[in-house]
């Protein structure tokens, strides 16, 4: 069996939240894009906006988040890192790092209102 390198290392993400409506409002505000309710899965879900069906995306769903700051970190595309950091705190989240510059862009670590670890990233 040969090794196949996938086009995208990540193909989908799921973020467990305790309050679906609060999380939809939070993530819509932080990313600047609405989340869309979807049916057909095993749980109610709201999907993050993405440019096309082949774009990597994900959703929020009613679930049990990891203890604050201990789960995996999902980095979300935003227009401007500093502006997104302001939207994080204005909508009940917490900014936990300064802006970090890397060759691919800039980001900051944050927590959503449930303590899920997220990054706000701009290329």
Give an overview of the whole structure.
- With 123 residues, this protein is an alpha+beta fold.
- It has a single domain, classed as 2,3-Dihydroxybiphenyl 1,2-Dioxygenase, domain 1.
- The chain is built from two helices and nine strands, in the order βαββββαββββ.
- Strands 5, 6, 7, 8 and 9 form a five-stranded mixed sheet that branches. A four-stranded mixed sheet has the order 1-4-3-2, covered by helices on one side.
- Helix 1 runs antiparallel to helix 2.
- The termini are far apart.
**Shape verdict:** globular
- Most strands sheet: 5 strands, mixed
**Which spans of ≥5 residues are poorly predicted at pLDDT below 50?**
none
CATH fold assignment: 2,3-Dihydroxybiphenyl 1,2-Dioxygenase, domain 1
Give the termini distance in whole angstroms.
36 Å
Radius of gyration: 15 Å
Give the class-level CATH name: Alpha Beta
The helix fraction, in percent, is 10-25%
Beta percentage is: 25-35%
Number of strands: 9
* Whole-number tally of structural domains: 1
Layout of SSEs?
Layout: E1 12-17, H1 20-31, E2 36-38, E3 45-47, E4 57-62, E5 74-77, H2 81-90, E6 94-95, E7 100-102, E8 105-111, E9 117-122
Parallel strand pairs: 1-4, 5-9
Antiparallel strand pairs: 2-3, 3-4, 6-8, 7-8, 8-9
What distinguishing features does this structure have?
single chain; 123 residues; alpha+beta; 2,3-Dihydroxybiphenyl 1,2-Dioxygenase, domain 1; five-stranded mixed sheet; 2 helices; globular; VOC domain-containing protein
């Amino acid at each position: 069996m040969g090794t196949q390198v996938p086009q995208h290392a990540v193909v989908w993400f799921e973020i467990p939240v305790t309050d679906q409506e609060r999380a939809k409002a939070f993530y819509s505000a932080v990313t600047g894009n609405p989340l869309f309710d979807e049916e057909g899965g095993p749980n109610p879900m709201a999907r993050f906006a993405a440019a096309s069906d082949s774009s990597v995306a994900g959703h929020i769903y009613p679930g049990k988040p990891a203890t604050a700051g201990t789960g995996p970190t999902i980095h979300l595309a935003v227009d401007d890192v500093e502006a997104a950091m302001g939207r994080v705190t204005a909508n009940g989240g917490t900014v936990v790092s300064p802006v970090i510059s890397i060759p691919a862009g800039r980001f900051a670590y944050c927590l959503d209102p449930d303590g899920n670890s997220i990054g706000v990233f701009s290329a």
